[in-house]
Amino acid sequence: MWCNAAMDRVRTDAGARPPRATIIDVAREAAVSPATVSRVLTGTKPVSADLEQRVRDAVNRLGYRPNPAAQGLLRGATHAVGVVVPDVGNPYFAEVLKGVTNAAEESDFRTLVADTGEKGGAEHDAALELSRWADGVVLCSPRMPQRELAKLAQAVPHLVCVNRVGRGGQVPAVVVDFEAGMAGICRHLRELGHRRVAYLRGPARAWSERARQRALRAASGPDFEVFQVPCGSSSVDGHRAADAALATGATAVMAFSDYVALGVLARFDELGVSVPRDVSLTGFDDIALSELLRPRLTTVRVSKQDLGRRAWELFASSGAIDGADETGRVVTASAELITRDSTAPPAGAITPLPKTAKA
Amino acid sequence: MWCNAAMDRVRTDAGARPPRATIIDVAREAAVSPATVSRVLTGTKPVSADLEQRVRDAVNRLGYRPNPAAQGLLRGATHAVGVVVPDVGNPYFAEVLKGVTNAAEESDFRTLVADTGEKGGAEHDAALELSRWADGVVLCSPRMPQRELAKLAQAVPHLVCVNRVGRGGQVPAVVVDFEAGMAGICRHLRELGHRRVAYLRGPARAWSERARQRALRAASGPDFEVFQVPCGSSSVDGHRAADAALATGATAVMAFSDYVALGVLARFDELGVSVPRDVSLTGFDDIALSELLRPRLTTVRVSKQDLGRRAWELFASSGAIDGADETGRVVTASAELITRDSTAPPAGAITPLPKTAKA
DNA sequence: CTGTTAGCGCGTTCAC
DNA sequence: GTGAACGCGCTAACAG
C-alpha cells in the first residue's frame, strides 16, 4: 500500500498533470513524520539541523507548497484580505488597491479583489462573499445605504471602509478630507475671479459626494453661485455631462474627479471650447494621467496608495492579526490643492452656449 | 470536552464578533442532520419539501455560508482562478482582468489577482503562490524567459497565457495578432507617405514585442525606414522616450501601446510639437482613453475583455471544471486598425529637432 | 527534540 | 429519504 504520489506521477506522466504533493508525501520522501515537516515549514518548534535539511531537500524536490485551505481550516484564518472596489478600471481605485496589496504583502497576506461594476447593489453581496475567503474586507467608496453597511459590519468580522464613515464611525475607516479639498478648489476659483461655477456631481449615494456638497454649500453665496449638474464617476459620464455644464453659463467647471474631468476635457475639445481660455476645469484625486493631459489639470492631490496602506493598517490593528481589537477608528488623509494649467481667470464675457463661446 | 463553537460564541459576545455559523449549527437549528443541510445546499440529492424549507429558514436565520476552505479541501478544488498581471493600473490589463472576472463569475468562480509591478522576476513566484489558492492561473503578458515558463507550466496545474505562446504552444494561450496589427499600422503610415518612422519599443522580454518586431522587419525597407527607440510599457516610459523618438528625425512615431502613446503625446505637447501636423503618432490596443485624448489616437483595436473571457474558456476547457483535458490550444484574436486623428501625411520637411520643427 | 493522535468544516460515501 | 461515519491536508495538542 505504499503506492505513493511519486508512483502515480510516473503513470500519469503522459497527461503531464503533476498532482500536488501533500505534506505526507514530503514526510515519506524525507523519512520523517508529517509533524516534523510542519515544524520546519512554520518554524514553530526547533528541529535538528540534520532533519531540517532532509525536509528542505524533499520540499524542493517535490515542489511542495502547503495547501492554504487546509491551513485556513485549522487556524480559522486564511491570511487574506478582500478588497471591494466599484471599478478596477478607474485609476483611482487601481491605486488604492495597490496600496492595500503592497502593505498586505509585507505581512504575507494575500489580496482578493471584487469589482462591483459601479453597481451599489452588488457591494453587499460581494463583501459577504469575500468574507468567506478572507479574514477581513476593505470596502472602497461603498455606495450602499447606511443601514446596509451597519448590517454588513455585523456579518463581516473585520470590515474597513475607505472614503466612507458609517454612523458614528462604528466601522474603522480611512477617509480623504474631501471637504477641505473641495473648499480649496472653491477658494482658488473665487480668487481667480469666477462667480458662476458648475459642479459635476458624483454618485448620489457616495459619502464623498456628500462631503463635497458640504464644502460647496459653505462656499456658495451671492458672489459665488454653484450650479449642480448630475454626472457620475467615470470619464464617459463626464463626457456626457459636459454640455449641460456649459449650458449653465458657468465660467468654471468642477468635476467630481480627475477621471471624470478627462471625459469633460474631451467633450470640450469636440465642442471647440478651450480650457482654460473659455472655461476653467478642475478635477479631484490627482491621478497620474492628470499631469499628462493637456492642459494639465488643476486638482486636489490625494495619496491613493497611502489610503490603501492605511486601510490595511486599520484592518491589521482591528485584531485581524494579533488580538488587539481596536474598533471604530476613523483616520483622515489630507487633500492638497495642486494648481496647474486648467484654471485661469474667467474670460470677460459669460459663455451661455459653447458655439457662441467660440464665435 | 464538548466545549464547542456555540459555547465560545456566548463568551465573546461582548466583542460583537459574530463567529461564522457552521453546517452543524444549521443542522441543529433545523433539527436535521448535517448531511441533509448539505444536500439542500448543493442540490445533489432530493430532499423532502418540508425539511428543505426548515433548512433554508435556518440558513437565513443564521446567515450561514459554507466555508470555502473546507469545501476546497474536500473537493480538491477551490473554485477560484488566479490572474497574474504586470500592472493593474494599466488600463489594458484592467480590462483583461474584467474579462476574466466576468466570465469566471458566470461559472461561479472567484478571481484572485496578483500584480507583479512590471517585475518579470516576480511572475514565477506570483503564479506559484496563486496556484496554491486557485485551481488554475492566467498569466497576462508574462515577461519571464521561455524555460521558466515551461517549468512553471509543470508546477501549475491549469496554466493559461494571454499574449504569450510557449515553445510549441504547450501552454494554452490566447494571443492578439500583433503581427497583423503592426503590419496594418505600417501600411497605413506608408500610404500616408511616411518614409522614416520611429518605433517605441516595449519590454524586451515581452512576446508581443517580438511579434511586433517581426511585422516591423517585414514592413521595413529602403522606402520605409524604422528607427528603434527603447522605451517601455507605461505612460511614463513614453513620456521619457519621446525626445529620443523625435531625435531620429522620423515623421511618425509608433508607440508600443496606447498607454505609452499617452505619455508621448504629453511630452510632445510640452515640446510644442503638434500631432499630427508636425509628427504622426500611433498606439496599440485602443483603450477607452484613446478616444478621449486630443488628438484621438490612431490605433489597433483589441477586444481586451474578450481576451480575458477567452483565457477563461481555455482554462475551463483544460479540464479545470469537467475532466476534458484539452491542452495546448492557442487561439488568436484579431486586431483591427482604427484610423483617427493622430495620423496624417508628413509635413513637407523632415523635422530633426522639435524646436526647429515649430519655427 | 521527535512521532503519534485528533480534529478544523464540509461533502460523500455507506447503512438504515 | 435520511442520518452516521469517514477523510480531504494540515497543525496543535499530547506522548515518548
From TrEMBL, chains A, B:
UniProt cross-references to SUPFAM superfamilies, sorted A to Z: lambda repressor-like DNA-binding domains, Periplasmic binding protein-like I
InterPro entries, per the entry: HTH_LacI (IPR000843), LacI/GalR-like_sensor (IPR046335), Lambda_DNA-bd_dom_sf (IPR010982), Peripla_BP_I (IPR028082)
Pfam families per the UniProt record, alphabetical: LacI, Peripla_BP_3
Domain HTH lacI-type intervals: 21-75
Coiled coil feature spans: none
Listed GO MF terms: DNA-binding transcription factor activity; transcription cis-regulatory region binding
Gene3D superfamilies on file: 3.40.50.2300, lambda repressor-like DNA-binding domains
Keyword field: DNA-binding, Transcription, Transcription regulation
Protein name (record): HTH lacI-type domain-containing protein
